[in-house]
């Protein structure tokens, strides 16, 4: 199985960590997704949420705006 096929599983693991408050672990998985697909808007958006949760609001705005620029049709990004 190639990396692209594995991404839904990686995203699911990242979300589990994120929802459980394990932000560093989630961030590592999101980063792994972005290494394979730098335009993965969900991973970018979720990295923005982690930045916000960590108090890095400027980075959060930058990342979330980037996710919106890639896929502005996702209402959740707003």
Structural notes for this entry:
This protein is an all-alpha fold and 78 residues long. 74% of the residues lie in helices and 0% in strands. The chain is built from four helices and no strands. Helix 1 runs antiparallel to helix 2, helix 2 packs antiparallel against helix 3 and helix 3 packs antiparallel against helix 4. The longest helix has 17 residues.
So how many helices? Answer: 4
Mean pLDDT: 92
Q: Give the CA-based shape.
A: globular
Rg (CA only): 12 Å
Q: Count every beta strand, where a strand is a DSSP E run of 2 or more residues.
A: 0
Major sheet summary line: none
- What percent of the residues sit in helical stretches (DSSP H or I)? over 70%
Structural class of the helix and strand makeup?
A: mainly alpha
Order of helices and strands: HHHH
Low-confidence stretches: none
Q: What's the N-to-C terminus distance?
A: 34 Å
As a percent range, the share of strand residues is under 5%
Describe the secondary structure blueprint for this structure:
Blueprint: H1 3-19, H2 23-36, H3 41-53, H4 57-70
Helix pairs in contact: 1-2, 2-3, 3-4
Key terms:
78 residues; mainly alpha; 4 helices; 0% strand; globular
Structure summary:
74% of the residues lie in helices and 0% in strands. The chain has helices at 3-19, 23-36, 41-53, 57-70.
